[in-house]
Amino acid sequence: MDSVKRSALTPTKSRLASTFAKVFRNQSAKGMISSDSGIKKTKSHEKTKKDRNEIPSSGNEDDKELQNRAVREAFLSKLFAGISTIKSAYAQLQFAQAPYDSDGIQAADQTVVAELTNLSELKQCYFKKQLDDEKSPETTLLLSEIQEQSSLLKTYEITTKKLDSQLMLKDSETTFLKEKLAEADKENKTLGKKLNASGPLFMPDSIQLLSDLKPSHFNAYLRTALKSIRSFVKLMISEMESADWDLDAAASAIEPGVSFWKPNHKCFAFESFVCKHMFDGGFNYPNEGEEEKTRALFFETFTEMTKYAGPASGYLAKKPKSEFARFCREKYSRLVHPKMEESIFGNLDQRDLVGSGDFFPETSFFSAFSEMAKRVWVLRCMALSFDREVSVYQVKRGSRFSEVYMESLSDEAFLFSDDDAPENDPRVAFTVVPGFRVGEIIIQCQVYLC
């Protein structure tokens, strides 16, 4: 029985032992394999690391280039910020000169010196290739941008102050010129009241010497002369109507091819005719090379004529051989045609008296003519007394209207003009009253537009 039990147990133990043995062998084999794999893995990792160190990385080079570029940009931003600061300080230095500001000049000078020192240091850093800064490039760029914008703001503030001061100066100049203009207008009104066509001429108190003559005086006497011319034109037209003249035909003969905007505008043609003859010849010196002597003589004549309180016919009766008398004879013979005189008065007695050289007619017609001639003569004497050239100008027919040189007597022409079509702009039909140049001063001519 015991033998049976032993025989039965023996195979079981042997199988268990063999099983444990296999397990131990498998674990031992796995440990060897794991150890070998660990050795292989370690060797492979070291080799890969070594290969990586031997091959350069392109990403690192790009980062380094970007870093260097940022450093250079930061350096340039500091450079331009310093230049902007110097510009603003220089602008402040200029502004502090007038009116003089010692504190402003000193502060601007210190700023310029400090920034020039900084620029010098930047120059040395550039030559030594020491462009790196303690701060990061981004911070340097931001600070430089703030400094530059601050400098620009200071420059704009200084420019604004300059413009404000210039504006104040212009305002004061404008106020001064307005006061002068008001004074001149007041003087012209005073002269206009005293220098009227029906009364005697007046010598202004402001004209005592030859050097006292001004263009404003010429303008005042010109207005008086034009009033007298218009008075004579009205009388002449009235006499022509009384003599049954065809005024339309007469106006067309004076200015052919002109269509008048209104029937009463025909008077401008007669006024043009009178002015053309009365101002014919301009204001030329009779003796060239003796301008100074001639100026003194004409100023003396001007003074004499303006101080004479009587009518022009009385002066002609006293001095029938004077220069003024000769002027009257010349202008009358050219202005009043023999046919017109004969048709109005029925004879040529007035022309015969004027041409005799010793007497002058005592009619209302010649009296009006002599008053007109006196004022034109006085204006001529004044023009030849100036120390500057006085000239007469007229505008040709068909010329484009210019507000600088012309004054319109027919504003109806502007109603039919077209701003978009320059060819339809008003054109000059004829010059009614000539214009004058007194040195550099322009006195507009009066024109009739079509």
Descriptive report:
The chain has helices spanning 2-54, 58-95, 102-127, 137-194, 215-242, 247-254, 266-278, 291-307, 312-318, 323-335, 338-345, 349-356, 364-383; strands at 390-393, 406-408, 428-433, 435-438, 441-443, 445-449. It has 450 residues and is mostly helical. A 3-stranded antiparallel beta sheet has the order 1-4-5, covered by helices on one side. A 3-stranded mixed beta sheet has the order 2-6-3. Helix 2 (58-95) runs antiparallel to helix 3, helix 5 (215-242) runs antiparallel to helix 13 (364-383) and helix 6 (247-254) packs across helix 7. The termini are far apart.
Key terms:
6 strands; 3-stranded mixed β-sheet; 450 residues; 13 helices; single chain; 66% helix; mainly alpha
